[in-house]
Amino acid sequence: MGLFGFMETKVKARRFSKVFGKEWSIVTNYSAHNSGRIWLTWLPSIFSVSSCKVGVQYIHTLVTHRASMKSFWVTMVYGLNDASEREKLWEQIFDLATSISEPWLIAGDFNNILNLEDKLGSPCTIAEVKKFRTCLRSNDQMDFNTGGMFFTWNNKQEGRDKVCTKIDRVIVYRFWLSIFPHFSAEFLPEGLMDQSPCCMKLDNQIGNVRKPFRFFNMWTEAPDFLEIVKDAWNCSINGTPMFRVKVNSDPTNEDLLKQEYEARAEYAKAHQNQNGEMINAPDKIAETFVSYYQKLLGSDEGEVMDIHTEVIQAGQVLSESQKHAVIRPFTENDVRNAL
To answer: Other CB atoms closer than 10 Å to residue 159's CB: what's the count?
Structure first.
């Protein structure tokens, strides 16, 4: 990876030099907005960037991939919250399109849905999507079919209060897929953020050639073979609760949303100790489980004195016939009568 776009960094211009390393080159829109809402960074050894144009809601640059010498335009977008301000963005995209003949990629947070099904948990209207759709249609632009997460933003609420939207997109324009036929884009789980990052590859086939797995018997002769295999199998895999229920398969399904909410609640409860504190470390989780069952089942009381036979006989005991009835083999009729 050698080219990154960052949105809403919340880094002031005076602190910018303390945040970014010297090996990277960067363009920001501090000149258009005092918060520097958009950053475009790249490794000069992999990409060269020129012909930069900066606005409040976008950074527009011509990028050349040094290894392949292929050039293309990249526009990183971060739309404003106000709908009237976003109309200016649609107009600016239209103006940029009039002077572009090379492949063009537009990506980022448009702060606007494109389709009615792009929002869950809150009503939406045709008016919200109409002007964005018109912008893409008029400029011969296409919403690229991305992989990964369908919804790219959520309000971190649960149940009926949860709102999910697809406001982050990858838009491609004229000749893009003919120049980069194996291009791919995938939205990853949001983690601690409220938005999903997007990972794009110009050529998804590079380094992904499938090779058959071959097992060599001599590996078993290595002194630490079994230990290495055991460690690999015991390696813990972490993920977000979104993976527990496949809400992505049907994002409008209320039953799946309910299952997701219940799964998150069970996940949180299972990782709490008796004091209600979240436990994430594997060794601490094991201790919490042991402590829970010790409290549930009780502890060893040590040596218990034998009960005298005469004490037992003084109470109600089974007769000889009852004793034999308890230990006799059961028959097929006994099973039928019990059912």
So the answer is: 11
> Which residues fall within 8 angstroms of residue 134, CB to CB, at 6 or more apart?
90
| Ordered structural domains, the chain, with CATH | 3-201 (3.60.10.10), 228-297 (no CATH)
Choose between 9 and 268: higher pLDDT: 9
Dihedrals phi, psi of 39, to nearest 5 degrees = -125, 140
DSSP 168: E
Q: What's CA 284's distance to the chain center, in Å?
A: 25
* Cβ atoms < 10 Å from Cβ of 189: 14
The whole-model pTM stands at: 0.61
CB 37 within 8 A of CB 16: no
Cα 8 to the chain's mean position, in Å?
19
Other beta carbons within 10 Å of 147: 13
The predicted model gives 5-13 an average pLDDT of: 79
Give the per-residue pLDDT at 242. 45
Provide the β-strand partners of residue 72.
63
- In the chain, the amino acid numbered 176 is W
* Model pLDDT, residue 241: 46
| Residue 192 burial class via C-beta count within 10 angstroms: exposed 0-12, middle 13-18, buried 19 and up | exposed
Give the mean pLDDT of 123-131.
Answer: 90
Q: What is the DSSP letter of 195?
A: B
On the question of pLDDT at 21 being above 90, the answer is no
Compute the distance between CA of residue 51 and CA of residue 100 in angstroms, rounded to an integer.
12
The Cβ of residue 278 has, within 10 Å, a number of other Cβ atoms equal to 8
Largest interatomic CA distance in the chain? 106
Query: Is the backbone of residue 96 left (phi > 0), alpha (psi -120 to 50) or beta?
Result: alpha
CB 111 within 8 A of CB 168: no
Asked whether 27 and 59 are in contact (CB, 8 A), the reply is yes
Report which of 88, 57, 91 is spatially closest to residue 75, judged by C-alpha positions. Answer: 57
What is the Rg, in whole angstroms, of the alpha carbon atoms belonging to the chain? 31
What is the tens place of the pLDDT at every residue in 282-322? 677 777 777 777 777 776 666 666 666 766 667 777 888 88
